[in-house]
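ESCALATION

Customer reports they have been waiting on this structure for their group meeting. Please prioritize. Original submission:
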Amino acid sequence: MVTRLLNSIRTLTASLRPRRIRPIVPPVTVTDANDREVQIRQYSESDRNSLVTMYDDFDPTQRAQGVPPRSVEAIREWLSDALDGIHVVAAVNNKIVGHIGFVPDETGRHELMIFVHPDYQQAGIGSDLIAAGLGHAEQAGVTYVWLSVEKRKRYQQQFYNRAGFSLVNSSGMTYRMSRLL
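Update from on-call: job pushed to the front of the queue and completed.
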């Protein structure tokens, strides 16, 4: 009786504990929490227009630290710089619904950027996307990844922590987090 009770408690505790996000190498097909089949693969230049369309759908309140920009022209200009580096996309029915990128900085490190279309958030796509992005970046030789996250967005900090990121320092309204691959 006691053993069954302890096993039940362990099972419940494990189900409440968020799972660690571990790197995987794309391409991979997953099913999100809404039973949609999601293909996660390396970005190709032919994805650019679909990526612009995805970013154009973002509401101003869903933008982080000024990105993505608000107009299609500004998005195209931003992407011309942001698409340096290593990139992975998530697609549902050939429509881009997520994007992760590792943009090199002047120090040889890479800044992480990740976005999931508003209609596809909270379905697990971000977790699968960051896992595939980290796996692809590691395979491509990236060794150090960093990002900035707003201090008030605790849920994002917890998300990145699940993916192996640690708080490095605080600067103004943001935290810097990083991890080694």
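Sent to customer with the following note: Residues 58 and 118 are 7 Å apart (CA to CA).
Escalation resolved.
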